[in-house]
Amino acid sequence: FGSIYAGCIPVAISDSLRHYIKDIIKDTARILGDETLYAALSDATQELSGENKAKTDVFLKCYNDTLAEVATAYYPITKEETIQPGKTLFSTLSETPLRIKSVRAQSGVALVFSVGEGYLETEKVAGKLTVIYDYIPSEKTADGDFEYEKTPLGKTVFCYGIAAEYCMIGGRYSEAANWESKFKNAVAGIIQPKKRAGKITTSRVWK
Questions:
Q1: DSSP 3-state assignment of 108?
Q2: Distance (Å, rounded) from C-alpha 105 to C-alpha 179?
Q3: CA nearest 181: which of 160, 205, 201, 202?
Q4: Is the sign of the CA dihedral 160, 78, 112, 201 positive or negative?
Q5: CA distance 155 to 22
Q6: Strand, coil or helix: what is 112?
Q7: pLDDT tens digits for 76-127?
Q8: What pLDDT digit, counting tens, does each position of 44-89 carry?
Q9: Sign of the torsion angle spanned by Cα atoms 200, 162, 173, 40
Q10: d(Cα 56, Cα 97) in Å, to the nearest integer?
Q11: Left (φ > 0), alpha (ψ -120 to 50) or beta: where does 199 sit?
Q12: Could you write out the DSSP letters of every residue in 148-200?
């Protein structure tokens, strides 16, 4: 990786297997040269404690920050749910909507709908409806599933984003900027940024 990554270990990150968030954190620790944490996360027989637990908590925060950025700015996660005609409060949906993409009747016909503060409203028709929406992911735990496993992004992109966040938190600003560049370039090679909705802010601030 060049002189700025002295002490870091270049590794090939496989995107072919099922992964949990802990696996993403583990591989990020390795590319940042933290073999102690990598070994601890690889040992399923031992509970994390002390410094390894503290580091993992920081890495998890970085994962959740990267997840929010990817989901709101680059590659939204889409969900379908059944709703009743008329007014539907966002709080009754299983996820927090980022944008409503469409509402369809049982026949498959697209319906007219409006979006207000905390709700969506459809025309009155018979039968249940299907709403399709992009959502803002909730914060995850280390044992959770990696939601982008079956997408073109894969876990390598997330490792770069997490590494950037982790280095920034640790005051390693030059390294953070370089990992951020790798993250942005990797994302740009896959998908164009989405227009951000509402007041959501996902861009990073560098010092």
A1: coil
A2: 45
A3: 160
A4: negative
A5: 11
A6: coil
A7: 989 999 999 999 999 999 999 999 999 999 989 999 999 999 999 998 888 9
A8: 777 778 988 999 999 999 999 999 999 999 999 899 999 999 999 9
A9: positive
A10: 29
A11: alpha
A12: TTTSSSHHHHHHHHHHHHHHHHTT-HHHHHHHHHHHHHHHHTT-PPPPP-TT-
Contact indicator for 42, 174 with CB cutoff of 8 Å? no
16 three-class SS: coil
CA geometry: angle at 137 spanning 140 and 112, to 5°? 160
Whether residue 104 contacts residue 132, with contact meaning beta carbons closer than 8 Å, is answered with yes
Amino acid at 113: F
7: left (phi over 0), alpha (psi -120 to 50) or beta: left
- What SS3 state is found at 38? helix
Say whether 40 sits in a helix, a strand or coil.
Answer: helix
Integer CA distances (angstroms), 176 to 7, 55, 138, 164, 169, in order? 15, 17, 25, 4, 9
CA dist., res. 37 & res. 43, Å (int): 10
Tokens, residue 193: 């940024």
Which amino acid, 123?
E
d(CA 193, CA 2): 28
